[in-house]
Amino acid sequence: MNENADAMAFYEQQISETKSLKIWEIILGFTISTVLMIGSTWGLVYLLYVFNQVSIDLSRIIPYTTWMVLGSIGATLVAVLVGILILYYPRSISLPLKIHSFLKRKTGEYFLCPDVSNQSLSKIFRRSLYGSVLVTGIALTIMSIDMLVVVESADIMMFGIFVLILCTALLPLILMQFYYAPWLIKDAGLFHLDVRDRSLSNVGDDLEDILEFVAGVDIVLVWLELTINTGFSAPWIPVFVILVPLGPLLSIVINFTLIFSVIQKRASSKVVQLLLETYNVPDMVENSQYIRNRVLALVDRRLLADDAVEVYESKIGSHIRGPDLLASFSDEYSELILPELPSDEDIDGVIRKMREHHESEMIESSDVGARQLKSTKSEDNELEMEPDQ
Known about the structure:
Blueprint: H1 5-16, H2 23-50, H3 61-88, H4 95-103, E1 108-112, H5 121-143, H6 153-188, E2 190-194, E3 199-202, H7 203-230, H8 236-246, H9 248-277, H10 288-316, H11 323-329, H12 344-385
Antiparallel strand pairs: 1-2, 2-3
Helix pairs in contact: 1-9, 2-3, 2-8, 2-9, 3-9, 5-6, 5-7, 5-9, 6-7, 6-8, 6-9, 8-9, 10-12
């Protein structure tokens, strides 16, 4: 734990310097969420009334709306409990890590480079829309088994009610494992270095892209399935399927996201600490040299080839690219008369200089990180000494 203390101090300083939502922005976000809940509830009730799917008394629209708002408040309290669980037990969001590790087994390794972005209301709303689509897609996946047989529009109505209930029931689990977790993993800067396809990617981004694609495709497929099963006798179905994730559910997810924004910095620090101390993931402060060597190892052959070509071009006095380059190094064109190739000493010198250049850059970058850490410690010591004086 002591050996990661410097790294944690550096990362916590970085995280603390990011911009957070102001109080008025949080209040504005909750206000917009409440207005969205009221408006979408009225829209859904009026839609069902117009198409005579259920017996609805429009004079009781205020009690209907009150129940929906109370449900949104209850979901917000659940979001607070989920946030507390993440803060005090960060391993509760390790399921996506296990899934990614299983899918990427024996193809590379992980390393840590935290990069927490600034918060803003626009980001809150964009992420809430993603979360609403995600929850709806997963709920529809579970419920779509009932749609394997031909159903009537009345059955579709019950199907929609069950979808909304199931979305609400699964909301805490889905948001914790597939909404909060990828977000925190992305902010923690967990990267995967894939040696199979020579790629470097943020694990959180990978998880979010996969989940968003699967959820979106599933919503479209279920929508088409409902339309085909009922024909065109129920034109309200597409509107109903759209209003659920864009209305009440989106309002609830906005509340979840606003609550999460309050604890995001502390939760990100907890996840970084979990990755460093529990999973022993190499990080850019303590293991920068090792990480750079591993990254450069994936492209080392290409770098060496490019420098060898430059040496050869300097020998013949002209540029060679494309087919000429292939012809120069191919046995099929052995009859081609070429100038004298560079000697082994020349190539070794190029390789040596290139590696020395990369190593010097690594050392300089490491020195910058060390100086930042030392300057932070010295400032803290000065602040501690001032009261004594």
